[in-house]
Amino acid sequence: MKKIRLDQLKMGAVLSYFTMAFNIVAGLLYTPWMVDKIGQADYGLYTLANSLIAIFMLDFGLGSAVSRYIAKYRAEGRNDAISNIMGVIYKMYIFIDIAILAVLFVLYFFLGMIYVELTPIELEKFRTLYIIVAIYQIIAFPLAPLDGILNAYEKFTQLKVCSLLYRVLSVVTVVFVLLFSSDVRVVILATVLAHLATIFTKFALTKKYVNLKVNFRAGGRKLYASLFSFTAWTTIISIMQRFTHSFAPSVLGITSGALEIGLYSPAVLLEGYFYSLGMAVNGLFLPRVSRYIANKEEDNILKLMIKVGRYQSAVLGLAFIGFVCVGKEFMTLWMGQEYTKSYYLAIIILFPTLISATQQIAKTTVIAKKLIKYQAICMIFTGVMGLVASYLLSIKIGAAGVCIGTAMTSIVNITYMNFVYKKKAGINVFEFYKKCYLRLIPCYAVILLLGFAASKFILLSGWLGLGVKALAVGLIFAATMLIGYATKEEKKQLIGFVKKLSK
After folding, report:
1. pTM
2. Residue 440: CA count within 13 A, CB half-sphere
3. What does the pLDDT look like over 314-325, one tens digit per residue?
4. What would the DSSP string read from start to end of 305-367?
């Protein structure tokens, strides 16, 4: 059983990185082409429509409940409890889906009053996009627990295959329709169809690989109370999270218009790739953390957090510093000279993610220990602060204001949550910072200095020049991290890995 779990974990990690690599490469290649085909303003509408998908896929904490409760009950060997809790959760999903349908129907008639900066032609297009997104939402929402089920049962391979399938389908369908039409409405329809195909594939895989019985007759005050005490806080977290990147296009639609959304879009697209890089393996550890807690082995949580955090610091640091050094040239080559501003927007929103993404094991522990109310309290404050700051700043400076507001929110949130990890979750964050960051900061500083110098001395231009500069920064990063950051054990593991590859 342990070997099967390890194999699933390894394969899940491999598929995560492969999916992420495909998504990044495909997105970088076809996004400029798509913008050229549909235009910057319509690309802003496309981004706005996709942000609505994210906003209305809010699951009121039930998705986290699925992962948390199944992982907990599996660790305790309580299959009957799994059947009961899933029966209650599915009934709640269906009830919420009906409520969402009513909200979407009413909201349609107020789109013109909400997005006042859209022109009449843009608004008419967006109404059609809204209808497509709304239909997708109603179909997809009741099937949202599938991710949590596959994750909790440690079917990481199947889950990551579905993620890869979605990325491939979304790119293929969008490219296909753009060959015949430049209508943004057809493009968003292709994206939605890729979503739906993936969801139904996920459903088929769950039926095949997970022996899960759902007791729809389950209920009772105690069961509902236990579920509500968990989901109430996760709902707040989910809502507040939508005050950042998902709500940002809507804020700009109110204050600045489609062109500013277009400038914001490449930055947030890169942030999404960066975040995916940080989350590629962290989502695989909830079952393990739950077992540590159930078996009274909580000392292993800090060890796991340090191990994963150091690894993430190296991976994310390479991406962030590489972008800082050569990202401006990349942005102009990728999207065009008029998108230079997007480079600075991206740096602003990438930096907080560099820190928070290395601490996902601690966030997983907060979920496993049912301590999420502390995160929710913080999210209420920072979410409102971020929304207000983004709105006020965007009036004056457009997309830059949204990015600054988002970054402020993230930094305050990170600071508060570190106190929660220490005081409530029992994680020695000082030890984590010492082992993960103490030697990292001077290494980052050296790499930035040498990386900027290398990018200035290399006189090649165009994509070839960018590639050479990126390679130089990468070599500087690898050498500096190996000499100044890696431990003896990490160096030994790296040598062993290289030897395996060379065989």
Report:
1. 0.67
2. 22
3. 888 898 999 999
4. HHHHHHHHHHHHHHHHHHHHHHHHHHHHHHH-GGGHHHHHHHHHHHHHHHHHGGGHHHHHHHH
